[in-house]
Amino acid sequence: MKKTSVIILSGVVILFLVSWLVKGASLSGEENPYLQGFLTTFAAFLTLAVFSFLYRDNPFYKFAEHLFVGASAAYWMTLGFWQTLVKKLIPKLSDGLANFFEVPTEEHSYWYFLPVILGLLLLMRLSKKGGWLSRWPLAFIVGYTAGINFVGYLRSDFVKQVSSTFVPLLIDWQGVGHFFSNFSLAIDGQFVMMLANVVIFVGVLCGLVYFFFSKEHTGLFGTASRVGIWILMITFGASFGYTVMGRISLLVGRLTFLFKDWLGLIS
After folding, report:
1. Under 8 Å CB-to-CB from 64, ≥6 apart: which residues?
2. What angle do CA 188, 228, 243 make, to 5 degrees?
3. DSSP states of 103-133
4. How far is CA 257 from CA 17, 41, 47, 66, 253, in A?
5. C-alpha–C-alpha distance, residues 143 and 181, integer Å
6. How many CA atoms lie within 13 A of 96 on its CB side?
7. What does the DSSP 8-state code read for residue 56?
8. Burial 228-238 (b: 16+ CB within 10 A, else e)
9. Distance of CA 103 to the CA centre of its chain
10. How much is the pTM?
């Protein structure tokens, strides 16, 4: 097993070096061609390493996974240091530190020492004896985030969705004659807009009926419940399809990179 692993690793290294040299030679007209060739080859290697998980879990996939997670963590840590600590906190605490990091100073406030203290207490998580101190800032973060998100989700996922269902079933209604004389299937036409509002009204009503379990779903009530099931399934299917389309676009992007930027098989 170890011999097979060595052979596979050697083959991958040889292919990587050959691809690097060939790609660098093909970019001879550009600045630093072999550096660009190395970056393109390395990106292609990481893409293929992730795709190799389709076969089974393997060291190449684990390498790409760990590299991605580590690089992402380092990037966000660096971004948080410069954008949060240096840009927003330090100018409010010390003119000397602000001048050291070359950021404009702001009016000082002792209240900003509170997040500094909480941040230091959060680092006590690394200590075995003082780990219990990290629970206080963690509880503050969880409680504050829950409170802020509760208001946001209440507005976006409840109030706005409920208010959006209160739609007029008759839009710009001026009589039957005016309706048929100006009949149009345009997307912004009166008929299509009225039909859309009717679908919203019926869909919301039937969806609520499906979740009403205090009455047996028979007769007209059962028909509305079955319509509600169809509405829910169509909604879930459309949402799932939209998600799949997003993932497919990522796949197309990586395949385009492999066949165009790396192999040069398509123009």
Report:
1. 46, 49, 50
2. 65
3. -------GGGHHHHHHHHHHGGGG-SSSGGG
4. 19, 11, 9, 22, 6
5. 59
6. 0
7. -
8. beebeeeeeee
9. 31
10. 0.74
- What CA–CA distance (Å, rounded) separates 49 from 162? 46
Cα–Cα dist 134/129, whole Å? 11
Q: Which of 126, 119, 125, 154 is nearest to 140 (CA)?
A: 119
Which pLDDT tens digits describe the chain residue by residue (267 residues)?
Answer: 578 888 988 999 999 999 999 999 988 888 889 999 999 999 999 999 999 999 989 999 999 999 999 999 999 999 999 998 899 889 988 888 889 988 898 888 888 888 889 989 999 998 888 889 999 999 999 999 999 999 988 988 889 888 888 888 888 888 888 888 888 888 888 899 999 999 999 999 999 999 998 888 889 999 999 999 999 999 999 999 999 999 999 999 999 999 999 998 887
